[in-house]
Amino acid sequence: MKAEVSRTLRAFLIELALYAVLVTGYFFLVLHFLSGWLQNLHLHHVKLYALIAIALIIGQAVVLESVTTWLLRLLRGRSE
Amino acid sequence: MFFPISGAHISPIYLVIIGFLIGVMGGFFGVGGSFIAGPALRAVGLDWNFAVGTDLAHIVGKSVVAAKRHRALGNVDLRLGFIMAIGTMGGAEVGAQLIQMLKRADNVNLVVSVVSIAIYVSISSFMIWEAWRTLLFQKRRRPRSKVPGTAAKQDESSFSHRTEAIQSLRLWPMISLPTSGVRAISLWVIILVSFIGGLFSGFLGGGAGYIRMPMMVYVLGIPTHLAVGTDLFEIIISASYGTFSHALKGNVDILIALVMNTGAAIGAQIGAISTQYFAGPKIRLAFVPLPLIGAAIVIYTMWTGHKI
After folding, report:
1. Which of A39, B56, B159, B213 has the highest count of CB atoms within 10 angstroms of its CB?
2. Most confidently modeled of A31-40, B34-43, B144-153, B283-292?
3. What ipTM was reported for this prediction?
4. Are B259 and A31 in contact (CB < 8 Å)?
């Protein structure tokens, strides 16, 4: 039981480290390029901004869910 | 990091940590976590209108992640979720209209504060009483298997005799919810429950999961794990509607929500997976402090006149 817990914890910490690297890259690349465009939409095309905001948050959530599931499977699969 | 839409300077690490914490809570309890996210955004200087709108957008993203995970675990009743979304949106509109009426009468802050404290404290008191009674009853009756994910998913409630009475109401049309194990229940009861949830969402703000999740368990008789997963699925629809409405009014900084969502994605997965290791009454008992935190924030605001 203890071995299983420590294996899960180890896998989780590795996942967290990998995820942190991916997220940092995401901040600097994607958000940096999107901010100007989104600000312009927010000021001049508010209806389009509202639609794109929902699409972006749902799209990002789906992608992140897939990434975290993939990381979990990869690490758990390797450790078990 | 500078967020040009709201004009705020906020540390992305702070946003990721807040997102992570709310994600864990949301995945485990099926709530949006607006009673913490709103004040947390306000605490770093975001205007209230942006805090409310951005929080709703973040709730959509977090709920997508947690609901997907719950769906993979078999904890989402899609039929129930779609029916409830209709009632929730209707209730949210009525709640918003009530707020407008109170605004015109110039006593919105006092009425909303008093109602919210009464609701939060009542939910917590009832749930602590019911979950405690159920756990005591289970302890006296028999020892249970401790295999995670099997016995943990079996659910019981000391309120079940009342739930059965509600399910036996013959108000046409009757529908069945096979995923939730409900043989027949009146459509109107489901609509009423979701309408009340939506009413509180429109009246008190946020996703109102703190009232909808307990009502799904005690009134509709949905097992706790399914109530958590289905509530999250339903929140995706109702919070998207709220986000769109707030975005049109210029109250959503989507960049902040996207950053928060990176933390929430991993937190929501952890929260959702954790539900497999806890029995229904234990999840309900652990839920008790959440509405009380909401009540404490409102009391603090009323007492000091400051917003957190």
Report:
1. B56
2. A31-40
3. 0.84
4. yes
